[in-house]
Design brief:
Helix content is 68%, strand content 1%. With 388 residues, the protein is mainly α. It has a two-stranded antiparallel sheet. The chain is elongated, with a radius of gyration of 25 Å. Bound molecules: zinc ion (ZN) (2 copies).
Length: 388
Amino acid sequence: MKFRNFPIYRIEWITSTFLIVTALLSLTLVPWFIWTYHAQVEGWGLVIALFIFYYYATGFGITLGYHRLFSHISFKAKWPVKLFVLLFGAASFENSALDWSADHRIHHKHVDEDEDPYDISKGFFYAHIGWLLFRLKPKPPVTNVKDLEADPLVMWQHRYVQWIGAFVGFVVPTFIGWAYATLNGFTSPWLTATACFLIAGLLRTVVVQQGTFCINSLCHMFGRQPYSRDHSARDSGAVALLTFGEGYHNYHHEFQHDYRNGVKPWQFDPTKWIIWTLSKVGLVENLRRVSDSRILAAELKEKSRTLGMDIDKLASRLDQRTRELKAKTIATAHELAKDLAGRAESLKELSLAKADVSGETMDELRGLLNQAGELLESLRRADAGSAA
Ligand SMILES: [Zn+2]
Ligand SMILES: [Zn+2]
């Protein structure tokens, strides 16, 4: 595209300026300030504590609030929880809960299609941040958040979101820094206040935003797909570490109404842990969970598909001798792929009918799933060996 033909009228000026300026200042002004004034600033303990508090509060505002509560209604929350996530969600500067949820519901409905607001098929940059900098098409009218429009707290936040964000995200931490320094008789309270503004306000905003953006970009490109390959979403433990547990995106796209994203006990999903804890003290309720049997059915189906597709591909690449040696493994893998498909189907039917599936059956099926994984692994090793 020639530069003079660039559709300037499609640039989102305010959003672009905010995103670019905050990112540039975080990379230049913040390190310069720390380098120059680290010795003069008193109260670094407070500055760091505020950064950590704001990082988690605004992060959970998005993951627990905007995402799992408002976009997916995966649980119900009492007003104190709603108010908290609306205040700190605004301070993450990712738009109002209403707008965020509207975009996100379209993302799930039309994932990887042209209507998907952060469609990964338009490239990593577009899915990560490009879609916020310029619009390829005019924004469609918002029609998919009627339930949220009926909530007065959500609508109050929607109306004043930029003011709430500026106040909670920048004014409050700056004021806390100044008040703390004044009460403690520090020589220069404004220096402590500036450190709080730059680190708990500015730098924290950029870090939390980039984390959220990684879900739309990295988690639609890199990682495993144990539940379905029907869409580009992937599970990434590394991204989960940066995003309060939202990295298990393959599971999430398959079962979007589950309040858990990291569904396995060993997966890092602090957002899930907090929702569960809040339910124990009565602040949230009606947590929605997909049954273990339904999840296992999805895993079995996907594994049978992977196995079916991969055996022939791998076998065709093996040299004559390795293929003969592995003939039995290949035949077993073929049989297992067929068996798994049938078992996945009947398990899914049982789970949809809410029928009880015995522990032994579940264990047996998990055993088959592992066996399929081991077979694939052994064929991959043979392939690597024969290529060497
Ligand atoms: Zn997604
Ligand atoms: Zn979602």
